[in-house]
């Protein structure tokens, strides 16, 4: 497809479209998307320089919003159509023992931007650049706390802080009295005491005070509108009383996904009624445990966690942010080197009910452990897009999900189901038209998945294509299927008849036999659709031009 040829007109057309239809993006709009999460300071520099960046020093490394703009091709080529950036507001400066606030989670003045990342115009340019590509902008926000460096770490509330720095509040009466959280089983303690410690206290905003609440509601409304934001990732949600969130979400007016950092589905469920949804930590913990422990990990506990979320969250698991790595948890490759397990793991977010999120650097095989090691500078990878890289695998995963959605719209509203397997080292997930087979057996294993006819998935002699390899299998005369993994590799099957539309995914094996194999594919289905729109626009303009010219000549 003539992607580049159509690009200029695509841009022109979408500029026009988006300036007319700048509508707030709802949770339903987001379900069709997949999200690339990045730490602004560590993703790219606008001037293209690639300074060294020692994560253990916890210093700013130079990434900024112009840098993100300069690397949108890289993100879009992988098939992502939304970007979640780290917090944008002004943070505390100079915290010798804990390092710089390069991650953005130590807000000091929420009415100003973090100048390390650029100007207000730069952030607006990023928002505009994303929208011109038909992509969404998600911004990370924190309302639970603000941060000031205490002048005396052995003193107590409220003397050692300069409250005038903490904007828009500016006084101690907008904060809960100082006490550090000591009892996580006491919800009042969790909500009204402080995170952090004496050397860097995260000063807990008094979200019981209605004046404070109104200020925060007005603030989020303004920020979303000023920067044309399409979605919000909300930090430390369980540290603010539940009744605060519905008003926050309605003032935001866009999709909100909250961090409720705990593995207990029953605890989390009420928050899915205040915000649109949550980052799905319970499932994350099950997935991480299943893969980080190799073959002794229990993959059935993934099915268990997912079933609970489907039953207890508002809207099931359809609105959750589905992730396997992020800025707060060790990357899988900090403990696992077997690449077959790495591949099984990276697939998870793309084939279940939730909205897929990929944390930057996972596509480059980054191996950072706990914070701060897991916030590596991406420029040091050279933004590798090689055919045999995880980058290419992610591209295939995004294409597969887009193809599944376009083949069957019910994909977005039909819950994933699990087919009981003979061992806890394999998992079979059905979400038509996808059948995903995962294993933590490792590269020397050859385990078998059984899909019995009683699962009711297929008719007799249906040809299925593994979109990861383009190899095919055919169901037995009773519709059953047994598949054995080679070297612990995962499989994502689609019926061959589901593959013949977009031409990006194993289409040689599709029923019409045209177009390219996945390694030669030109990007996501969306990119191709956009290119088609671009070509259409070009034809329209050309026609207009000819008509006008014709009129002039006559
Ligand atoms: C590039 O930008 C960084 C961060 O703003 C700055 O420190 C560096 O000096 C710049 N390099 C060049 C070559 O302009
Ligand atoms: C810090 O606070 C402690 C406890 O209130 C006090 O004893 C000490 O003198 C203070 N130090 C300074 C330098 O103000
Ligand atoms: C509530 O917050 C406002 C504004 O921050 C402040 O002026 C007021 O004193 C606070 N009220 C109480 C009871 O703390
Ligand atoms: C729970 O925490 C609050 C705030 O720290 C405290 O006032 C209260 O006594 C605690 N309740 C119990 C039962 O410990
Ligand atoms: C999970 O959360 C629920 C609701 O808060 C609570 O009743 C239950 O005890 C928690 N379960 C565990 C194992 O902590
Ligand atoms: C694996 O997890 C499932 C679901 O949580 C549980 O029922 C089963 O007992 C576990 N099996 C092993 C071997 O731990
Ligand atoms: C399997 O993975 C291990 C651990 O990374 C590696 O040392 C080994 O070479 C791999 N074997 C094969 C056959 O790929
Ligand atoms: C794929 O091709 C078959 C046979 O030509 C056709 O019936 C089917 O509708 C096509 N699938 C899609 C999604 O267009
Ligand atoms: C689409 O998915 C739904 C729900 O899984 C299923 O009932 C329906 O048969 C599917 N349609 C096609 C054409 O595969
Ligand atoms: C599907 O395509 C792949 C790669 O092009 C090829 O290796 C495989 O043999 C094909 N399978 C069938 C049944 O056409
Ligand atoms: C699949 O494996 C099961 C269990 O081993 C066996 O009973 C069944 O006959 C196999 N089915 C096919 C089609 O090979």
What does this structure look like?
The protein has about 550 residues and is α/β, with parallel strands linked by helices. The protein folds into 3 domains: about 1-30 and about 520-554, no CATH class; about 40-145 and about 210-390, TIM Barrel; about 145-205, no CATH class. It has 16 helices and 21 strands. The strands form 5 sheets. Strands 11-10-9-5-2-1-13-12 form an 8-stranded parallel β-sheet, with helices on both faces. The protein has a 6-stranded antiparallel β-sheet with strand order 14-15-16-21-18-19, covered by helices on one side. Helix 1 (about 5-20) packs across helix 16 and helix 14 (about 340-350) packs parallel to helix 15 (about 390-405). The longest helix is centred in the C-terminal third of the chain and has 29 residues, at about 525-554. The chain is globular and about 75 Å long. Bound molecules: 2-acetamido-2-deoxy-beta-D-glucopyranose (11 copies). One 2-acetamido-2-deoxy-beta-D-glucopyranose binds near residues 179, 186, 189, 192 and 193. Belongs to the glycosyl hydrolase 13 family. Keywords: Calcium, Carbohydrate metabolism, Disulfide bond, Glycoprotein, Glycosidase, Hydrolase, Membrane, Metal-binding, Signal, Transmembrane, Transmembrane helix.
